[in-house]
Amino acid sequence: MQIALVIIWIFISLSIVQICVWSTDGWEKQKNRFLQFPAGRTPPAQADTRVQFHQDQFRFLVVHETQLAIYEASKLECLKQWFPRDSAAPISHATFSCDSQLIIASFLDATICVFSASNLRLRCRINPSAYLSANVSSNVQPLVIAAHPHEPNQFAVGLSDGIVHVFEPLESEGKWGVPPPIENGSASNMVATSVGASSDEVQR
């Protein structure tokens, strides 16, 4: 059975995001889950929500301006979640690398972060000053990230001024940051970390 993922906005007193799984055989809804938000945080009204399947086709990435999350598709079980700090800029876009081992995310303050997809551990943070010249307007924001189709560590970022920057790690390093340690225990344990809080982070 093939499935299709649908994102639904429900307007009550707040904007609530609902993720639905539909069977493409008869287009019947199989399951649905509400996107989970941190306690005490009010979801922003009408923020974009995107989904992208992992290479294994069993998991998918949910991108919302307040979080990154990995879900198991058939059960709609949230396996991992990552929330920026309250003071951090909203997430503007995120995508898997071509091998689904990394997740690259951009933020509205032009920061770019590279995560390990297996556990959403932060591996590297690229500061705006590393790729934006001093005379670029502070209003310029990254809008979209495109992963290279064959090189897992290479990606492009499209900015709101029409400029596209291509990123890859230093030749001497060959990869982004330090791979996080292998986790013990169940893979269903949820992880919540913050930008700048990981010991695995490498700044540029």
TrEMBL record:
Keywords attached to this entry: Membrane, Transmembrane, Transmembrane helix
Composition bias type Polar residues, residue spans: 185-197
A Gene Ontology BP annotation from the UniProt entry: regulation of DNA-templated transcription
Residue segments, region Disordered: 177-204
Membrane-crossing segments per the record: 6-24
InterPro entries: Topless_fam (IPR027728), WD40/YVTN_repeat-like_dom_sf (IPR015943), WD40_repeat_dom_sf (IPR036322)
Name the record gives this protein: Putative WD repeat-containing protein
